User: Which sequence fits this backbone?
């Protein structure tokens, strides 16, 4: 995805430019791997926030020359500033600047910390919680022809491809992740997540069914050495709930997609087969093979083989 930001400059803009009475910044942007969480392109009214700061300095109140400037798209991949006050201009004196940008836009950013919350039902929310970040543009000045912002995903995602071996209907399946932290804050200054030990809550994955097949996806916070997490598969049409105890020490890293192929066997158990998948917008990470029994029955202890 290549998007073009064009900023016009006229005498009417003098109240906006102020001391930056110089060349308007011309942005190109690209999303790494070209798609977002849902696999779609930019949507109508999608918005990003852009910062310009003194080159070589960490983002702060003293280094920032333009803060959280909103830019939107009508859905065709072209972005423009939302209001004249959101326009960005190079310093007229030729001094060099760096750029930081993020998606999706938040009206209020406090202390350069972006709030993250992936808890609850993620249906119709994947794009809204798919945090992307750009900090790869440095040392530009008024002589630059344009600026290209490269966005990368900062969270992780789990994808489950599910099939019933007997061809039984999977309608109404609900996939729930428990025991994972769901809230944090992301530093726009150094691209790190803050720890939040109190934010453990349920995540309801986005699940679509088609007769005996289903696909389920959830965005999660990056985590290393995960302990105590579970994924449950409630299948009303089967009258059963299956549970996978996520292996202790499991890592889910930023920018990575973890894909599991799930099969409900003829014996009425759920097995996660050798992972595979074609990655478009995240880095491929194998999920492992997981064997699951019905909750409360023998064999439902989440025994895993070939975990990596």
Assistant:
């Amino acid at each position: 995805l290549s998007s073009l930001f064009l900023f016009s400059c006229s005498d009417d803009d003098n109240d906006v430019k102020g001391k930056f009475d110089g060349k308007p910044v011309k942005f190109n942007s690209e999303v790494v791997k070209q798609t977002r969480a849902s696999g779609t392109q930019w949507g109508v009214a999608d918005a990003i926030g852009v910062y310009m700061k003194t080159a070589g300095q960490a983002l702060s109140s003293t280094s920032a020359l333009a803060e959280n400037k909103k830019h939107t798209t009508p859905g065709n991949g072209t972005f423009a500033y939302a209001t004249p006050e959101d326009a960005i201009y190079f310093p007229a004196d030729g001094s060099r600047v760096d750029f930081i940008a993020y998606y999706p836009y938040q009206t209020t950013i406090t202390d350069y910390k972006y709030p993250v919350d992936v808890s609850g039902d993620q249906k119709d929310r994947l794009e809204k919680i798919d945090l992307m970040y750009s900090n790869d543009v440095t040392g530009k000045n008024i002589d630059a022809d344009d600026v290209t912002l490269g966005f990368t995903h900062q969270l992780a995602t789990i994808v489950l491809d599910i099939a019933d071996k007997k061809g039984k209907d999977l309608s109404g399946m609900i996939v729930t992740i428990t025991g994972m932290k769901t809230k944090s804050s992301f530093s726009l200054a150094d691209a790190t997540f803050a720890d939040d030990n109190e934010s453990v809550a349920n995540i309801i994955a986005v699940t679509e069914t088609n007769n005996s097949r289903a696909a389920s996806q959830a965005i999660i916070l990056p985590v290393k050495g995960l302990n105590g997490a579970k994924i449950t598969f409630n299948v009303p049409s089967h009258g059963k709930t299956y549970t996978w105890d996520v292996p202790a020490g499991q890592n889910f890293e930023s920018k990575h997609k973890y894909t599991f192929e799930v099969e409900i066997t003829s014996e009425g158990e759920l097995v996660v087969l050798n992972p595979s998948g074609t990655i478009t917008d995240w880095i491929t990470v194998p999920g492992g093979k997981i064997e699951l029994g019905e909750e409360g029955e023998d064999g439902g202890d989440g025994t895993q083989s070939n975990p990596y």
